[in-house]
Structure prediction request, 617 residues.
Amino acid sequence: METYKESIISGLERLLADPKCFLLGEDIADPYGGAYTLTKGMSAKFPGKIINTPMSEQGFTGLGVGMALAGYKPMIEIMFGDFSTLIMDQILNHASKFVEGFEKKLHLVVRDPMGGYRGYGATHSQSLEKLYVGLPNIAVISPSVLHEPGDLLVKAMGLGVPVIFAENKLDYTRKMFKAEKIADAFDMQYHGGDFPIAEVTFPDEDAEITIVSYGGLISPLLQLMYDIYMEEEVAVRLLDVSSLSPMDFELLQSLLKDCKKVLTVEEGHIPFGIGDTVISQMVQRGMTAKFKTIGAKQHIIGTSKEAEALALPQMDEIKDVILSW
Amino acid sequence: MDKKEVLYRMMLIREMEHKIESLFSQGLLRGTTHCCIGQEAVPVALSYLLNIDHDYLCSGHRAHGLSMMMTMKPETLLGEIMGKSYGMAKGLGGSQHVYFKNYFTNGITGGMATVATGIAFALKEDKGDAISVVDFGDGAMNEGYVLEAFNLAAEMKLPVLYILENNGYAMSTPVETANPFVVFEARVKGFALPYTRVKASDFDNLYEVLARAVKAVRETREPQFVEVLTHRFCGHSKSDKRAYIPKERDDYWHEHDCIKSVAKQLSEADVKEVEESVATEIDRVYEYCTTH
Prediction:
């Protein structure tokens, strides 16, 4: 697909073709067609399958859990990922317990758009996927402009455990990276199975620093890598992890084994972030590189550009870290 | 309906619960438990009204009665609490987290009301006549997502039967304290759910009310709500000494015990025979679970 949004739409439509699959969420039916217009036109295309719900995230997520328990394949759309705090009990204390406790495959995907940089403020800008990682029988998948989100969405439905599918709101406006002009400057390789780790390098260049990141920051990071390479002749390598939980630490270790410096970048708050766990796992496996984490600082995400910059990672700051390390 | 069999099922639940309480108090069982002594009527009525291969039933922490009525194999419940591999959830779930065919329980108050509503969505789409039933207590009536589920079921017209077993106390908190300005009837009718209230003290009457509600959900594919006024003669959980329950309330319910309403329809000899077969079954189950 040319764009991230087209890819998601394609994934939704492939899933909705299954009679057992439904999409439930707020304001997703026509004529509104969803807060990001992803489902515009789908009500006519899939009659009775795009279910507009009252504003009851806990309630309609529980509805999805019950549907999955009865053999259906519901997708739940949470309008802003921030609201995924409301659904945690149904995902953690119900759905995830049923997988092992009742020996049931649950086909249930919660689409959870995360991310800031849009001036929406403290309760509409967070990246909360870290609340759901590391828990048994919950998968957290994060597509990016390097991973076809529609394909990952279809595969996520096949996992048989409840999935937090952490999309990114800014990515809805972006092209897939391979459609970007600067993509030609890079080599891209995919490692692993259904939810691969993407590796992006500059041809014939050894990079001293490898960035490990995911989700909505991948697009600006690739632009930053391009700019630094062109302006400063510094080559940086990027690993983009699409399955945050479970994460293939063995594969990641093999991809990081000769690295001297590893920089993790995430939009969510640190410490206690995804990067901290990646580093801990690498250190426990005997890796001796230098490590740094970048993530949101310990402030609420303010609405003004300046306030937002106090919290969310800024590309200038990442550039300084790369060049001065 | 064979009333001897009804009495057998009710007494089996009660005596099994006494056995479980006794094993806990002797320190022979691990974890915690929530018995349903006094609340046997609903599980027994549902054992006649639902086909668990076809219909779905969800419940919460106080579900030993339902578990025994769905499996009719008490050793799979006691075995589960004892952590045995032949337990309902292979020893993983203990007292609160069990399943059997289309019957599921979980330990979070009220959560299964929401799940059962989702099951009803699926059953409506299936276009058959199976229904979703969920049994919960008065404590669940103040959980936000339970109220969200009522609203969703009413709005989407889903084939779900909500059974509220109001035993007067959310753990130790009296219904009147937790809901000072609300009676459940008004709350439920506020969601436009068809509502019926019945006392558990008369089994036949309770059975009739539940049978009508089950039939209505099955035929209309729309929700129903039944509030059952009941009482538990045991503590909330294994360590609860019931200091909050006034003696007059216990006395009233001893007089209006659901088991008495069935026993009085039988001869003394029949009742004695039932008592003996229950005792034999409890011994068999205990023997099985301690030797397997």
In short: Residues 268-291 of chain B form the longest helix (24 residues). The two ends of chain B are 34 Å apart (CA to CA). The interface with chain A takes residues 56, 89, 92-93, 97, 99, 104, 106-108, 111-112, 114-123, 125, 132, 144-145, 148-149, 151-152, 155-156 of chain B (CB under 8 Å). Residues 75 and 103 of chain B are 17 Å apart (CA to CA).
